[in-house]
């Protein structure tokens, strides 16, 4: 069951893999272009010899090469679109993180307590410190008179 899910999942490509894929596709396109030129040359020589059976075979081969070349030409465009989306996303994420970082410092100044428990502990210590101080103040006043 897991293998079925994994095989259906879209593979995630890193930036280097996309750049490498674009380079490989351009090399394959050049190879298909060379094959197409060779097939066209053979076709022209078969036409001049009036070997129509060979012309038909060569024409079929030539069309297959052009179809494969067209498939390979669309692949780099898809990879370039994915790379552009990735760059745009990273730019937005970087800007968002930068904004959140400045907001965190502002909120940290506003909220010195990590939790509500810290708030109540501080409040209790302040209250007890206030009681002790008032007790000392009362004691000092009675001792002075």
Structure description:
Helix 2 (15-48) packs antiparallel against helix 3. It contains 4 helices and no strands. Residues 1-5 have low confidence and may be disordered. The termini are far apart. The protein folds into 2 domains: 2-111; 113-145. The chain is rod-shaped. The relative contact order is 0.06. It has 145 residues and is mostly helical. The longest helix has 59 residues, at 52-110.
The total strand number stands at: 0
Largest sheet: none
Total of helices: 4
Assign the structural class, choosing from mainly alpha, mainly beta, alpha/beta, alpha+beta, or little secondary structure.
mainly alpha
Tell me the fraction of residues in β-strands, as a range.
Answer: under 5%
Helical amount: over 70%
Low-confidence stretches: 1-5
Overall number of structural domains: 2
Write the layout of secondary structure elements.
Layout: H1 2-8, H2 15-48, H3 52-110, H4 116-144
Helix pairs in contact: 2-3
In short:
Helix content is 89%, strand content 0%. It is built from four helices and no strands.
List keywords for this structure.
single chain; 145 residues; mainly alpha; 4 helices
């Amino acid at each position: 069951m897991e293998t079925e899910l994994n095989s259906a999942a879209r593979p995630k490509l890193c930036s280097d893999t996309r750049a490498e894929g674009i380079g490989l596709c351009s090399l394959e396109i050049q190879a298909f272009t060379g094959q197409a030129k060779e097939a066209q040359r053979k076709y022209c020589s078969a036409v001049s010899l009036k070997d129509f059976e060979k012309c038909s075979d060569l024409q079929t081969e030539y069309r297959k090469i052009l179809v494969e070349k067209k498939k390979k030409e669309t692949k780099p465009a898809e990879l370039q679109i994915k790379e552009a989306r990735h760059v745009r996303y990273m730019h937005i994420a970087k800007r968002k993180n930068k904004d959140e970082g400045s907001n965190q410092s502002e909120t940290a100044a506003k909220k010195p307590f990590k939790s509500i428990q810290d708030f109540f502990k501080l409040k209790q210590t302040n209250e007890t410190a206030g009681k002790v101080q008032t007790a000392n103040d009362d004691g000092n006043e009675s001792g002075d008179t």
